[in-house]
Amino acid sequence: MSRVFLHGWGAVSPAGWGVEALHQALLEGTPLPVHPLVRPGRAQPLPVRRVPAFSPRPAFLAHPRLRRTSPITHFAVAAAIEALGSDAARVATGELRLGIIFCAFAGCVSYSRRFYDETLRDPATASPLVFPETVFNAPASHLAAYFGSTAVNYTLVGDQGEFVKALALAADWLLTRRVNGCLVVGSEESDWLSADALRLVAPSIITAEGAGAVYLRSDPGPVELVAVTEPQLFTQNRGPREALRQTRAQLDGVLGADFLLVTSEHDSQLVPDPLATSDWLHRAKQRITPAPVLGEGLGAGSAWQAVAASVALRDGEAAEAVIEVVGSNEQAVAAVLRRA
C-alpha cells in the first residue's frame, strides 16, 4: 500500500524565523506582543502581530527573482528552505521533481494596495514593476524559480482550510508519481487593508503574518499523513458548527486513544463556538491552539498548525495529531498525522 510522509517542515511567524521559535512560543503559551499598524483615515491604529526583522539579512534574498518581492514571498521562501533541507540541492540538479502548492487567503495584498493606490492617484505614475507582484500566484512562481523546479506548481486561494486540502492534493501527486517530492506552503503578509477588512467582521481578532511549510514524499519519514477529510462547505443550512460535526464524524474509527488536537481558534464573532460540538476536547490527550499566541495568520495559520503538530509528534508528545481547521467563510476540514 502506498503511503505519504512528512520529511520536513519550516516556519516564519511573529515568534521569529524558524520552527524552533514557533515551537518555543507555543510551549510558553504567552500571547506575543501586538504592534500598531496605521490605517490612513483612521485615528486609531490596527493591532497586528508582525514577523521580527531578520538579522543578518538572509542569503536567499540575493537571488535575482527575490530582489523586488514583498514579505509574503520572503516568508514563503524562508519556510520552504527550512522544510526542504538538503533536498534543495537535488531539485536544482534535476534529480528530484518537486511539486509546489502555495496557499493564501489575503495573498499579495501590500503590493496590490500600493499599485491601485498609485493608479487612483495618478495612472501615469503607477509602477509596472509592482504589478507582477500583485497576483496570487507570484509567490509560487518565485518558489519554483528559487529552487529550480520545473514540475507542477499550483496556487490555492481560499480560507484557512486550503492548506489542509493542499495536503491531500500533494498526496495525490506523489501517489500518481507526478512528482518525487512536494512542498505545501501557506503564507500571508500584514497590511492595513486586510487587517481592517478582518476588523469589520471580527473586531477583537489580531491579524498576524508569516508562513509555514511541510515537505512530503512517499518514502518513509518521521511523520505519516494518514487521512484528510472531505471539506464540509458552509451553506445556508450548514454553518460552522454543523460543518465541524460532519468533519469529525469522518474521523470516527480513524483515531486511536492517544491523539493531539491542533485547532484553529477563532473569535466567537467569526466562528461561533465550534469546539463545543462534541466530546473531542475530553478525548484528546492534549490540545494546541496557535492563534491565541501567534494571532490570526489566515493562510499561514493552518500551516502553523501543521508544523506544530509535526513537531509534537517528532518529540513524542502523542502518537497521532488532528489538524482541525474551521475557516472564516468557506469550510471545515481536518487531517490526521501519525508518528512513524
Question: Can you describe what's shown?
Answer:
It is a single chain. With 340 residues, the protein is an alpha/beta fold. The chain folds into two domains: 4-217, Peroxisomal Thiolase, Chain A, domain 1 (3-Layer(aba) Sandwich); 223-339, Thiolase/Chalcone synthase (Peroxisomal Thiolase, Chain A, domain 1), CATH 3.40.47. Helix content is 32%, strand content 24%. The chain contains eleven helices and 15 strands. The chain has helices spanning 19-28, 71-84, 87-92, 109-121, 138-147, 162-175, 192-201, 240-249, 280-283, 291-294, 301-314, and strands at residues 4-13, 16-17, 35-37, 46-49, 98-104, 153-157, 181-188, 207-208, 210-217, 223-228, 232-233, 259-263, 286-288, 320-326, 331-339. Strands 1, 2, 5, 6, 7, 9, 10, 11, 12, 13, 14 and 15 form a twelve-stranded mixed β-sheet that branches. The longest helix is centred in the first third of the chain and has 14 residues, at 71-84. The protein starts with a strand and ends with a strand.
